Amino acid sequence: MNTFVQIPRDASRAMVQRNTLLAQPSSFFRELFNGRTPSLPERLAWIEQQVQQSLSWDFYKNDIYLVIIEKSDPLIHLIIRRHDGEPCKDWKDCQKIKSQLIGPEYEAVELFPAESRLIDTANEYHLWVHPNSGYRFPFGFSSNRVVMENPLSAGDLSNHAPAPAVNPLESAGRRQNQEACSLASSR
Asked: 57-137 architecture in CATH?
């Protein structure tokens, strides 16, 4: 994956966005207007609001991805798409994108929404990044960094049970019981 370059702002992008939204069928707008078909002035007002909002977005591209960055309060929103329209298959790519475009010490999350909030119009991935590089979400792993160049596959893991958590005091007591049982059976 190559380094990202910023795409300069272009006024024609807004016109393309307007035309794309104007060409959408009524069913597209019904979803946005709680099941009712909006009037033409309502559609035009909604479209213009979307176009104006997108004027502040920053666009970046590399050989594989297009990334749109929307600095919305309270989080930074990354929209990630492949140029070929295929799904993003590698989690490491999303991690690299976040680190290259926002910074390596920023934390981001991907939301899997309730079905009632689902928007699935393209193979697009959304990350929400906290704008403070020192912020840590109150969930996730708290241990130090662990990275494997060749991660274990599911097949590798199926033959190994996870290591149980060990309480050293409990282990010492178990060992003493085993030793006592051994002594008793040898008599």
From this structure: Sandwich (2.60)
